[in-house]
Write the structure tokens for this entry.
Amino acid sequence: MKNVFYFWICMAVWLLSACSSQKKGDGEDVQVLMKDSVDASGLQRMQVSDSKMSFTYNGKEYHSNVIRRPDDSLPVVTNEQGEKFVDNRITLRITSGGKSIVNKEFTKESFASLVGAKFLKHSILEGLVYDKNTSKGMVYAASICYPQSDLYIPLSITVSADGKISIAKEELLEEVYETDSI
């Protein structure tokens, strides 16, 4: 009877340890968080991103590819704390039916006519994403921001079906909705 009792205790311990142990081996269950990098000289870089998507506009299928890369050839941006950041260059490619509609690179200087020089000096081109289709074209949202902060200027890039690009500054929500004072 004692041997049966010890046998069941050993089985219970073995089952508990087997159920609670982590799977080791092929690494398929590993999740890696992507984060910005800092090099030996203290320069901070955003990670490279490559976003591809397809959508339909006026009955035609379009393929969009947006690639963001930190670019060491651009001026370094320094924030108020003295931290240094490498600015980004973003490439927008749109094709339809194997034909190139747009293949354009953007830097924050591409938006200099819409963003004040003081803000531009301390900001980086953070991102560019497909937003929506309108009667005027395919709309992408872009943002120029102070690095690692919530301060940004939203911009809109509209691409017509024949590849013409127009850029506009979007209004911030605070500018659109006035708040009532209590």
Observations:
- Helices lie at 2-20, 117-121, 173-176.
- The chain has three helices and twelve strands.
- Residues 20-35 have pLDDT under 50 and may be disordered.
- The first helix runs from residue 2 to 20.
